[in-house]
Design a protein that fits this description.
It contains 5 helices and 5 strands. It has about 140 residues and is of the alpha+beta class. A hairpin with a 2-residue loop joins strand 1 and strand 2. Helix 3 packs across helix 4. The longest helix is centred in the middle third of the chain and has 14 residues.
């Protein structure tokens, strides 16, 4: 199973809760899920994994580099699998929807700004808070 090898590669012991949580993150319709979202989805699927276990496993996954934690709206953490390349986010302030995007012009501009100030870009995270325009 891919999940087992991913866990082993990350230095984590393969346990049923870890496998179930990793599968849930991989197959969910939503790419960005809170610990509570993961817990509810597991309950709906008939899986017996406690909320405290979900929090603990997600923290372990983050430390191992399997997931990325985002704190978009006032500290509410959501997680996404760390399986895709760099991208930025837009968060709808009305619905909480998270839209991923990549724009090469924005990336270039950020690097140019950093260079102009005499620095080297190590990492960055761009989040735009948006609202649907009224028609």
């Amino acid at each position: 199973m891919v999940e087992n090898s991913e866990l082993r590669k990350a230095g984590l012991k393969v346990t049923l809760p870890r496998v179930k949580i990793l599968q849930m993150l991989d197959t969910a319709d939503r790419r960005h899920m809170s610990a509570e979202d993961v817990y509810k989805a597991l309950m709906e699927a008939g899986e017996d994994v406690g909320l405290a276990t979900v929090y603990r496993v997600l923290t372990q996954f983050e430390a191992a580099g399997l997931v990325v934690r985002h704190n978009f709206d006032g500290g509410h953490a959501v997680f996404e699998l760390a399986d895709s390349g760099h991208h930025d986010h837009m968060v709808c302030v009305d619905t909480g929807d998270v839209i991923e995007f990549f724009d090469s012009e924005i990336e270039k501009l950020q690097k140019d700004i950093v260079k102009r100030h005499g620095y080297e870009l190590v990492d960055h995270n761009l989040v735009l808070y948006v609202r649907k325009k009224e028609a």
